[in-house]
Amino acid sequence: MKTVVLGAYQTKFGELWDKGLDDLLLEAVQGAIEDAGIDKRKIEIIYIGNKLAGKLLDQNHLSALLGESLGIKTPSVRVEAACASGGMAVAQGCLAVNSGQFQTALAVGVEKMTDLSTEEISSALMTAAGQDEQANGLSFVGLYALLANKYLDKYQAKEEDLAFPAIKNHFHASLNKKAQFPFSLTLDQVVDSPIIARPLKLLHCSPISDGAAAVVLASKEFAKSKERKSVYITASVQRTGSLSLAKRDNLTEIEASSSASQAAYQLAGVSPEDLSLLEVHDCFSIAEIVALEDLGICQRGEAYYLERNGEVKLGGRRPVNVSGGLKACGHPVGATGVKQVVEVYNQLKGRAGERQVKEAKVGLTHNVGGIGGTAVIHILQK
Q1: What's the chain's Rg over C-alpha atoms?
Q2: How far is CA 211 from the centre of its chain?
């Protein structure tokens, strides 16, 4: 498969008090279409990634909302896969184009989260977990804390090691004007931040965010008319795992991520060693550490060494989350998976500014729903 990415756009992520859901949708879509250099009427189908609008804003039927705002009647579908909703929207767009039925598709992810309390947001997010976990009062930080405790014990890592992904990603975000937290952190700041669910502390956790991102996808035949060097999505793979953490055989692996990445490497004809950069789902610091092992970047129990030694920092052997990741760029859950594709696309086009990865040729995005019930992998190549 080869789906061309014609254009991409990300709004600012953060507490965007002056913008509504429809404003964010429209900004991202118009930005991506303008970047692609096509008329909006050339878009043949649209996929919208969103998890929370119905529960938080009493607004469903986002397909009609976008059509009304954009002034078109293009077929449009809302896609929901918890925090992997954005990645799933991109995957559906790739599927539509590769089926041959459509020459173009638009994938957009959006979330408006900051208008409600933290308690309301946490409760809404937990609808992506199992009923037993919800009934027992768990939150996602609690679930990932269980995973973190198991990892630290199994591989003799220290609590301090959980700080390094956050420090790295905040440094990357300091170079990204669209990040929610464009500033650096020190080790002491992370280690001394309040405990949320031991061993996870406040600065190990991604924030509540507003934002949107969009990409225009096209067939190779359609893209030929644009006369530009193309970036391709050469693998788009989704896998499903158990909804509940209690049903897992292994608490230090997201099996859906492992399975999806192996299939993606085979489909794209690349290996982990070929990757120039990765955008991975670091909803909590431990999630990035586990992801690097799930994706085959290193052996089990070795990822925290890569973080500590700077091998996955900009300028290192294989940079990870140069956008700032979920931790520092922000995590508007429906938009995250699309934003990851936007970031890698911009890197491969050589237009990432101060955070540009030198000679970037192959990039991977990794988007997870819940505690690993869904994983979506995309591989992009020049």
Answers
A1: 19
A2: 12
Distance CA 279, CA 261 (A): 13
Q: Which two tokens stand for residue 264?
A: 């993606």
Residue 331 is a catalytic residue: yes
Q: Say how far apart CA 133 and CA 140 lie, in whole Å.
A: 10
**Torsion angle, alpha carbons of 106, 362, 364, 293, to 10:** 170
Task: Indicate the SS3 state at residue 284.
Answer: strand
Whole-angstrom Cα distance, residue 75 to residue 43?
9
User: Which of the following is catalytic: 83, 205, 283, 329?
Assistant: 83
Sheet holding 374-381, edge to edge: 76-79, 46-49, 104-112, 210-218, 3-10, 231-240, 374-381, 362-369, 277-279
CA nearest to 24, candidates 377, 375, 338: 338
Kindly report the pTM of this predicted structure. 0.98
**281 domain-assigned:** yes
Beta 46-49 vs 104-112: how paired, if at all?
A: parallel
pLDDT digits (tens, 9 = 90+) for 294-320: 999 999 999 999 999 999 999 999 999
H or E segment to which residue 236 belongs = strand 231-240
Asked whether the predicted pLDDT for residue 337 surpasses 80, the reply is yes
* 29's tokens: 């879509």
The verdict on residue 364 lying in a domain is: yes
**CATH code at position 8:** 3.40.47.10
Place of tokens 């035949």: 221
The residue type at 266: Q
Give first-to-last CA distance, the chain, whole Å: 14
Our answer to whether residue 61 is catalytic in this structure is no
- Could you give the CA distance from residue 310 to residue 46 in angstroms, rounded to a whole number? 39
The closest alpha carbon to 79, from 69, 70, 90, belongs to: 90
Q: Which two tokens stand for residue 183?
A: 């500033």
> In the chain, how many domains are there?
1
DSSP H helical segments within the chain, as ranges?
21-36, 53-57, 62-70, 85-98, 118-125, 131-135, 140-155, 163-173, 187-191, 220-223, 255-268, 285-294, 303-309, 336-348
Q: What is the pLDDT of residue 227?
A: 66
**328: containing domain:** 3-117+206-381
Active-site pick, 281, 331, 366, 378: 331
Would you say residue 14 lies in a domain? yes
